[in-house]
Amino acid sequence: MYDFKEKVALVTGSGKKNGIGFGIAKRLADHGATVIISDVCKDIGAKDYTRIGSEEELKGLAAEIGGRSLVMDVTDMDTIEKGAAFIKSEFGHLDFLVNNAGAAPAPQFLQYMDLAMWHKTIDITLNGTLYVIRQMLPLMTNEGAAIVNTASRAGKRPRPFVGAYCVSKAAIIMLTKVLAHEVSNNGIRANAICPGQIDTDLEQWGWELESKILNKDIDKVIADEKESIPLKRIGTPLEVADLVAFLLSNEARYITGQAINIDGGQLMEI
Ligand SMILES: NC(=O)c1ccc[n+]([C@@H]2O[C@H](COP(=O)([O-])OP(=O)(O)OC[C@H]3O[C@@H](n4cnc5c(N)ncnc54)[C@H](O)[C@@H]3O)[C@@H](O)[C@H]2O)c1
Fold this sequence. Notes:
Elements: E1 8-11, H1 20-30, E2 34-39, H2 55-64, E3 68-71, H3 77-91, E4 96-99, H4 115-136, E5 146-150, H5 163-183, E6 189-195, H6 201-214, H7 218-227, H8 237-248, E7 259-262
Parallel strand pairs: 1-2, 1-4, 2-3, 4-5, 5-6, 6-7
The chain binds nicotinamide-adenine-dinucleotide.
Nicotinamide-adenine-dinucleotide binds next to helix 1, helix 4 and helix 6.
């Protein structure tokens, strides 16, 4: 167990019970942190491919882990500013920031894709990460403050039909490295994680897309994916959460600016 008793953590896009974000929030709470679950809410104007649920449901989810909830759209500066003000007034500071929100709103064949879709994907997945970092950094003044940004295997290995997503995730890796340099003098560490195939709605959507595009049975798509993974199985949100908890902990005090794969061995880099 890590000792996160005095720590305050914000996890973006953590309002779906079966998503990676909630897995991370739960794990940080297991280690004693006070966790702020944040996400968009349909009843205040969520867009497609985001969480569908009310503010009350978000509160209920936070209560399950003894945390707090915050309605925050990472593409909307106003809600991020209000989020930072909420954290400042309630806790006075922020120890851990996990930028988990992300989306791949539609199939994206680069030559023909609707450019609005390109901008939307990059806005949620890349720009949102920067917007949140900029507002939260002034609150990260305590010793041991750390940031984890969620990139993806797709940021290191191209995947057809999700070009905007791949580009966003590659950019998050570089953003994390530049950030790690810039905040090191303030004692803050920043790392990225690169999950492979993790069992969530987003990955399910990817399998369904592949099944349609390749006219291949979805069970066969999933079976082939498993076969391509050296550990021969799909990962779980809590396995990703364990990596995030480690990267935020004092055990990882000499690790910064890295983009760490968690993918059952699909990418083996030197
Ligand atoms: N599942 C995987 O295999 C996998 C692999 C690599 C990377 N990832 C990344 O992990 C993160 C979590 O993905 P997931 O698989 O749990 O997907 P998910 O769709 O279950 O969760 C994504 C969350 O982000 C939220 N979100 C979307 N737009 C938002 C916005 N504008 N503001 C705030 N929140 C917003 C959604 O509401 C949702 O709760 C994403 O960044 C994703 O790209 C996932």
